[in-house]
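Posted in: Structural Biology > Protein-Ligand Complexes

Title: Requesting predicted complex, flavin-adenine dinucleotide in pocket

I'd be grateful if someone could produce the 3D structure tokens for the following input. Sequence and ligand are given below.
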Amino acid sequence: MTAQNNNADVIVAGAGVAGLAAAVALSQAGARVTLLERRPYIGGRAYSYEHPALEETIDSQHVVVGCCTNLLDLARQAQMAETIRWYDELTFIEANGNRSLLKPGMLPAPMHQSLSFLKAPMLNLADKAAIASGLLRFLRGYPHNDAESFASWLKRTGQTERAIKHFWEPVVVGALNDNFEHCSVKYAGKVFNESFLRSPQAGRLGIPAAPLTEFFSPIAALAERSGVEVRLKSGVEAISQNTDGRWSLRSNGAEYVADSVVLATDFRQAQSLLSTLPSTEEEKRQRQAAFVRFIPSPITTIHLWYDRDVVGLDHAVLLDTRIQWVFTKSRIRRWPVERGSYQELVISASWQELEMGREEILSSALREFENFFPAAREAKLVKTGVLKEARATFSVAPGLDRFRPQQKTQWPGLYLAGDWTATEWPSTMEGAVRSGRLAAGEVAGSRQRFMTPELPATGFMKLF
Ligand SMILES: Cc1cc2nc3c(=O)[nH]c(=O)nc-3n(C[C@H](O)[C@H](O)[C@H](O)COP(=O)(O)OP(=O)(O)OC[C@H]3O[C@@H](n4cnc5c(N)ncnc54)[C@H](O)[C@@H]3O)c2cc1C
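-- Reply #1 --
Done. Output follows.
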């Protein structure tokens, strides 16, 4: 193949959620876009695969919330919004079987959850008072500066032990995937302000009802319909700028040339591809210093197939255990009852499990699961799987913001995308879509051009 065959206005490297979002936006705006992806499938970290021994398609459950406006807009465009199952209530379960429901009631935002919160047996009055005073601090927003850790904030605001264990921890560790020392108040506050307080709609929980690669395939189809040339198994090996200012990318023995490039890879790949571009020693040193600030954080999921439903809920938060969340995927996916049930148990920030073997993880998770759901002891466990994702997300550790690069780089025509770039969002699919759309906006000369507006505040939240 010659360079002549591979001319494009824009090349996007990486068909994760960020790259797909950038490619769709640019193509719809009239650019000739080529999307190069190293793997044989799209979706990046939001992927599913056929497990040969289990003969099942497995993934790590991803969830969205109503305030993920850009992801949901892309889903609507790709006509896949109906594959998201929406839930208004969250069930928190204690090991003694006590259940607490958090759900919106009649009161306007920000009090819409307060009636169910006041009734929740998982917290006593002192815990509830501490949480209410903590949430009040996020009414007007959250700190712009990301210097303080959430651990320090919990201490400073006098949170009780149970308020931490039964409220702050499930939400923050679930959403930001690291312990409190490694989460800044800025991003924890954002979670509470935007999804708990702003409006009932912003806080709705959405769960994809299809395996992730299938779930995201309509976006790849939308990209192709919009004119994007998608090339899988086409990892970018090198990137350079020509004397005419255009960019050349080498991939699979071919050379691709374009006016602009969006590098939508993970941060390690981006670092390695950028390291060959002309820069001063000081710029290289600064870039290196920035990249080491990104700490990957793991998620481990345990997959259990039973001959019958043993949970009776589509999903639940488990308290005082390693397992933070249980998803009954068979219910979410509306399997017929005779097909049995499929549970996924999620352990966020699973540093401990990274060091453990499959059998050890499985037996400890099963022990805990059966404590919460004794019906599991009576049912037949048909098959099991364990999936460790060592680099699931990056930690929004205090002080990270100033190291997250803007989408526009120092090299004209070269842009970055990926959940790790500067988006004001933590490591999420919404952050990834925003980064792709911001990069596309920079290519098109208007940063905000492709962004979907935020959801409006409702009730009294309109006053803030
Ligand atoms: C277990 C797990 C659970 C998660 N849970 C949630 C959740 O509940 N909700 C949520 O919103 N988010 C969740 N996330 C995070 C979410 O998956 C990511 O934030 C998002 O997918 C990141 O997308 P991205 O496009 O920025 O990066 P990536 O998904 O990393 O995509 C980068 C792409 O670039 C490709 N690539 C790399 N190098 C090259 C190269 N040289 N040439 C060409 N292509 C290249 C990669 O193959 C990949 O496809 C979870 C992640 C994991 C792993």
